[in-house]
């Protein structure tokens, strides 16, 4: 079967952890919804119930919450070959606390809760795939929390730059500051200082 490039990217992501037969690949693809989001548009907003688990095939999105003053706190950036969404809302069907906004024109593949449950029934090996995916996500979240406590703002910036070199050039300094947890002005000073070294 000739797959679209977006489907090839997703199947390559899945194949890192489980092997699928041709029929299983076709079944999986049939359960997905193609979604497009224009730059600056929301994929999801706080108060909504998450309808899909998303895989990004093109573009860049930011996931964030707003504090009482309305300032954003970015928890992740998601680019091609990344998964995103709000797993808690997706599983519990309770309203999300998160906003997901496209910082570039983006294309995604989404799996609904109904099709997610159907997938597990029809191809049980996907339970292993999603378990590994969620474990990796949890480990990443714990590490990020620890970095927030133990590293200086400059060290957090350097760590982000080292870990996500492909994202740094695609996001604004303001968004990077909201991710690291500092003001844009302080972010600017850190970048100037690091570039001088």
Question: What labels describe this entry?
Answer:
alpha+beta, 22% strand, 9 helices, 4-stranded antiparallel β-sheet
Order of helices and strands, N to C? HHEEEEEEHEEHHHHHH
Number of strands: 8
Cα Rg:
18 Å
Q: In which range does the helix fraction lie?
A: 40-55%
Oligomer: single chain
Strand order of the largest sheet: 1-8-3-6
Count of helices?
A: 9
Structural class: alpha+beta
What is the overall shape?
A: globular
Residue share in β-strands: 15-25%
Domain Cyclic nucleotide-binding: 16-120
InterPro entries: cNMP-bd_dom, cNMP-bd_dom_sf, RmlC-like_jellyroll
Protein name: Crp/Fnr family transcriptional regulator
What's the helix and strand layout?
Layout: H1 5-15, H2 22-30, E1 32-37, E2 42-44, E3 52-58, E4 60-66, E5 72-79, E6 83-84, H3 87-92, E7 99-102, E8 106-112, H4 113-122, H5 125-150, H6 153-163, H7 165-168, H8 173-180, H9 184-196
Helix pairs in contact: 6-9, 8-9
